[in-house]
Amino acid sequence: MELTRYITVGQYLPRSSPLHNLDPRTKILATTALMVTLFLIPSFAGLGLLAAGLLALLALGQIPLGYALRGLRPIAVLLLLTVFLNTFFGGGDAGRTLFQAGPLVATEEGFRRALFVGLRFILLVTAATLLTFVTSPVELTDGLEWLLHPFRRVGVPAHELAMMMSIALRFIPTLLEETEKIMKAQMARGAEFGQGSILRRARAFVPVLVPLLISAFRRSEELALAMEARCYRGGEGRTRMKELRWRTADLVAGACVIAVSTVLVRLR
User: Residue 128's closest CA among 258, 44, 27, 19?
Assistant: First the structure.
């Protein structure tokens, strides 16, 4: 069981592509705009066009399609549950009955709604992972800090929030790798994680949590000591090796996202 093969959120793929060269603020704002657009699109045609646009962005960012789709595997259970609930409970009594299993009735309207919500969920996850694929943790921190800076007037700690989000994304692959090592060590001692009922499998993961929590606290303490050893005292007065600058490509990308979002929302 190799968890790191299927968890792609938080992983950065260094490339020399037009998407990687964009300003991180542009990529964060564009991703946010696409996510908001996803919940405003009223038709399958709009979702299909947005899916085609995301495929084009993956190709532009030199991200293999198989690697991007691999990140959907960990959320497969949640996706299937969402489709199931919308199929049997999302359409009400409207539409033609497709099939019935006891008290559960699947209507044509419910099935269409389930497909629509499922596709929207897949595109939402793909858009989020695309941002981390083409943006390094340092760039992501700088971009988030700049965008949150105006809220400091009302007491929002912009630098601290950006740093915490960046560290959280950075440590997702690390903790997954640590989980995989612990599971392999326990499997070598006779532990079984893939057999038995769901309750038995859940119990089998309990011995994994204790060493994983200890490892997480140890890594956090080591990170804090390393930051203190480098005289880290927060965001006040800190400078950056690479200053953020808007370029023509960022303006073009922003205009394209606004135009595409407007068209997709109005498309019936």
Answer: 27
Listed ranges 65-69, 163-167, 253-257; the one with the highest mean pLDDT: 253-257
Residues ≥6 apart with Cβ < 8 Å to 32: none
Token code pair at residue 205: 């993961």
Assigned token pair, 13: 């793929």
Contacts of range 31-37, beta carbons closer than 8 Å, 24 or more positions apart: 31/127, 31/128, 31/130, 31/131, 33/257, 33/258, 33/261, 34/127, 34/257, 34/261, 35/124, 35/127, 35/128, 36/261, 37/260, 37/261, 37/264, 37/265
Say what the pTM is: 0.75
> Rounded to an integer, what distance in angstroms lies between the CA atom of residue 19 and that of residue 252?
12
Distance CA(33)–CA(26), nearest Å, equals 10
What's the Cα-to-Cα distance from 116 to each of 5, 68, 83, 164, 246, rounded to whole Å?
28, 20, 9, 34, 36
Length of the chain: 268
Cα–Cα distance for residue pair 51/33, rounded to 1 Å: 15
Q: How far apart are CA 178 and CA 23, in angstroms?
A: 32
pLDDT in tens, 11-50: 788 888 899 999 999 999 999 999 999 888 888 888 899 9
